[in-house]
Amino acid sequence: MIIALPIYFVFHSGQRDTILKDDPHVGRIVSFNLPLAYSSDCVGCGGSERALKINRDLACIEDIDSVSAQYYKDKFYNVSYVPSDMKFEVIEVIDVESYGIRQIGGSGYSLAVLKDENGLLSTELLSSIDDDGPCCNRMTPHLEKLFRYIEKNGKARVLATVYDLNSNKSDTVTQQFVLNALNTAPSKYRFSNPEVMASSIPGMLGIAVDVDADSLVYLVASRLDYKIWEITGLDADYLSTLTQSEISGMKRSPINSR
Known about the structure:
Number of domains: 2
Strand content: 25-35%
Radius of gyration: 21 Å
Number of helices: 8
Largest sheet: 5 strands, antiparallel
Number of strands: 12
Order of helices and strands: HEEEHEEEEEHHEHEEHEHH
Helix content: 25-40%
Shape: globular
Low-confidence stretches: 1-5, 7-12
């Protein structure tokens, strides 16, 4: 019995969902006023049974790359853009209870099931609904403005500065790697009119390309195996909206780049 109990504790573990039908959040309409993304088809992720069935998380765009592409179906980030003015209805609240070894680190949490204006379902921590939304902090300012610019104009021309973290170089080899990655990206993402060029960051190289919102989400989320150092917009109308503070907040050349 002394040996059996720990083994039972390990193997009899998991999470169970309880739908809270009378939760006051149900029926509430929320909008986060922030460019967001859906992250779908994660086949290696854990979580509540309901969340895994929906398999569409509402995510902060700059946080998506915290999950490696290897955990996604077909080994690529299945991400799509969620406009900043999207409204969501809370249609379910789920109490997720951990048991067995899963209790280590926390006994459970509450999850909101959201339905957007297009009828798509996604999941988000209930605590985020009451706080500031899915992101604890706002996006990098110049990227947030770039997504909002695309919301109004449909697309934008951007410059992706290339940099290889392994070799500490921004060179033609890395530039060609990124160009090949753009050309072989999943067909749902459109990277039009690619052009190799010098980056706006002195001493570094880049690639200019036309993107829509979904494609920019993919670019930011994947960073193409961490070969992209910075992404900036090139359209004059977009650049005219940037403040000096936002410009100074853009990444500069890494110390080791050469």
